[in-house]
Amino acid sequence: xxxxxxxxxxxxxxxxxQAPAWLLPLWALAASTPSYESVYPSLASRTMLIxxxxxxxxxxxxxxxLPLPGTIGQLAQWEIGTYLVMCTALMAVLMTCRTLxxxxxxxxxxxxRGAGAGRWTPLLAPLGAVIGIVALEAAGIGVIMTALTxxxxxxxxxxxxxxxxxxxxxxxxxxxxxxxxxxxxxxxGTARGASLGALGVAFALRVAADExxxxxxxxxxxxxxxDLVEPYTADRPVPLAVCAGLCLALMAAAGALxxxxxxxxxxxxxxxxxxxxxxxxxxxxxxxxxDRRPLAAWAVxxxxxxxxxxxxxxxxxxxxxPGSPTAQMVDKMAAGSPMSQFMGLLTVFTVLLVVxxxxxxxxxxxxDERRGLVEAEAAAGVSRTRLFVVQAGAAVIxxxxxxxxxxxxxxxxxxVQVTEDHAVARAFVYTVSQLPGALAAIGLAxxxxxxxxxxxxxxxxxxxxxxxxxxxxxxxxxxxxxQDLSVxxxxxxxxxxxxxxxxxxxxxxxxxxxxxxxxxxxRRDLGA
Length: 528
Hints:
The chain has helices spanning 4-14, 18-31, 34-39, 47-55, 57-63, 72-105, 108-114, 121-147, 157-184, 188-212, 215-218, 225-229, 237-259, 282-290, 292-311, 316-319, 325-333, 338-370, 373-379, 384-417, 423-432, 435-451, 459-472, 480-484, 501-523. It is mainly alpha-helical. It folds into two domains: 1-267, no CATH class; 282-528, no CATH class. Helix 1 packs across helix 8, helix 2 packs parallel to helix 8 and helix 17 (325-333) crosses helix 18 (338-370). The longest helix has 34 residues, at 72-105. The radius of gyration is 24 Å and the shape is globular.
């Protein structure tokens, strides 16, 4: 384990931007807990909400079963806790795969070993960094929720640290799962896909455990461990300790696989080559062929999320009736009629998923350049302009297709639940009319790819801000101009006058970013 301390420090330094980008919004989300009390000051005022949330299949599917009697702490760990757990799991998977397997694929592990690092250092340093970041996040959540006990009487110190413990063990479990996947797979992309698939299976097991009310089934899913601990209800420490032991077992399994694996190898069959010939014509055909599977995966994800939210629309009429506490809270988050508000909030979720996919596709050109693929393509006679334009076109086409799929599925599932107040038309139009926002995000990503490819991930800060402004901007009373600075949430309506100004501005931003990126990309050195 020689050089472990220095390797750990290097890994943390490389994550100095990504880690705060994850932790700060999650801490801010935990700090928004008092907003529940401002809208529902007593148990009596939230009785209808609790009954509706427990009876609605869509909310049970997304968040699980809301505990009774429905205190502020129980509401927070049920809704906010779901986002904290899922985002922490996603963060752990992405960071582990990036620092553990992608570094090996790119030769950094060979460089570290050549500098004198020990045999186990390339495994322990990334795992230690991710474990530490997850622990820091959990500690921050515990401190924040403890501090809020003085502001919200229904919160407890034991519940705060039970929730923090759940966040920690879920993050560690997914880090261990990703570490195992990194040993089984032969490249970072396969490991990342397998880890995200495992996260999806864990979510499905949590849903099955809720419907069957099976404690045994909950042990199989890290996402369901929260229901074993029951923060703000039972605050059980024993399940936390057992879950931590399971996390250690996963990491030990990753170590055992690592000890017997060849460098750059894996245990799964090698599918990097095939005797089948691809019939492609030109660079655009190659990009389309390579993007087929990722696009299919994003399409399935968008369809599933849209179907989930469409299934939640059945109880909206009663829940958002004028004068209800929920309607007052939603009034702060969106304007218009109850159905318009509800569809606006739902499409923010679905379009956010599309924007993430499109931005990732636009930024893939920087990854290809870092791996030397762009240089090889340029040497084969493909011009830089074509490389850039084809990648930009792929991102735009992907965004348009995903918006159509998402809007169509959302409208179809909404039609089964509710049809009043143009609900079905709004579900579709609100989704597809946010294409200019996706174009703006793509344009910003392309501008960074052209100007400074190593800094293109900064565009995720724009996406994160947009999500915060749309979800929580009204609750924290952000100025209107700050809430409008968003690549999501601006759409057309099927009723009333049409406001084209936000969409025109977003389109102009997207086009300007693409032009700036293209001009810079044509003039700078590759790898700069």
